[in-house]
Amino acid sequence: MRAQIDENLKRVYSAALNEELPDRFRELLAQLKAAEGGTGKGGTS
Predict the structure, then answer these.
(1) Closest to 25 (Cα-Cα) out of 13, 33, 14
(2) 14 domain residue, yes or no
(3) Cα 32 from chain centroid?
(4) Which ranges carry the Anti-sigma factor NepR domain (predicted)?
(5) Looking at the domain assignment, is residue 18 inside a domain?
(6) What is the CA radius of gyration of the chain?
(7) What is the rounded distance in angstroms from the CA atom of residue 22 to the CA atom of residue 30?
(8) Burial of 19 (0-12, 13-18, 19+ CB in 10 A)
(9) Is 70 exceeded by the pLDDT of residue 21?
(10) What is the pLDDT of residues 29-42, one digit of tens each?
(11) How is residue 40 annotated by DSSP?
């Protein structure tokens, strides 16, 4: 039973990775990236 659950989770995760991002989500990510770049803060050092 556990192996079947694991396989189903892997299948759903793989399908989600292959989906294209909606335009609105891309826009929000671009805004977030621009905001982080404008403040001089970022997650990287």
Answers:
(1) 33
(2) yes
(3) 13
(4) 2-36
(5) yes
(6) 17
(7) 13
(8) exposed
(9) yes
(10) 999 999 988 655 55
(11) T
